[in-house]
Amino acid sequence: MSVKGKSTPAGPPVDRRKELDRHKEIERLEKDVEELRHLAGDEDADAELERLRHQVAELRREFYTHLGAWQRAQIARHQQRPYTLDFIGLLFTDFIELHGDRGYADDKAIVAGLAKFHGRPVAVIGHQKGRDTKQRLVRNFGQPKPEGYRKALRVMQLAAKFGRPIITFIDTPGAYPGIDAEERGQGEAIARNLREMARLPVPVIVTVTGEGGSGGALAVAIGDRVNILENSFYSVISPEGCASIIWRDSTKAETAAEAMKITAKDLKELGIVDEIVPEPEGGAHTDHDAAARYLEEVLDRQLVALTQQPIRELLGVRYEKFRRMGQYFDLGK
What's the rounded Cα separation, in Å, for the pair 254 and 267? Predict the structure, then answer.
């Protein structure tokens, strides 16, 4: 019998009052900066404006550097955070979206298609959320159904046929848990993707851009390189779900987030992700262009390295990469 993983004690409670006070101070200073902007041209006002700008930048940098796991989870879920279609528009050219799983329907929670990255033909796949109520309903809140994963696999197999590297973007609370999804084989669709992605004969680069929830994320996240944006998180379950199971109280989500080790830094230390992609000051939602530039450098460097690797070696390293994850203890029969 084997046992995977081990329990992690919850850390000390986070001082929310201090964090709120610090955030309010930053907001107050930003208002002062805005008011002083109207006095630009006056020598004293310009000096004061520059001083305040420097102070705000330092406070914001300190604030975001020391955020806890729960606070980063909230940033990862920010409704203005760049989604897959945003990154496609900023990083790729000649994008052609492909629709449908050739079996049931087109799941709009998954965007998939062919494009060019720095002139190189690639396939792009990712979760897509919505920014308003109408978009969220159309995209099913970024929660794919089986046809979404089958569409993704269809595009990945097409990319493999023509030797195109695959780039995926992860941002989902999880696979859709509805009865209709289960009736159409949600678990089988996810399991099939895991198996097939493990042996795709082309480079696969994965980036967690927001929240990476459970099998819904993992179903398009088996890759040679797994990156994560600085304020994103990746976990087998949401902090709220964990708190509901462990303590029967979803309000303990903050405690659960700290104990689960879901942040980019934790995941890098545990060997779950390969690289942390920095975000612009204040988070990716404050500057989509800057966030895309940081990610572009990482994708370009990794793609160049992976395309130079022999396919047999690439597949072997990919297999070992995921086999090494987790801790296993053989307790005998």
Answer: 18
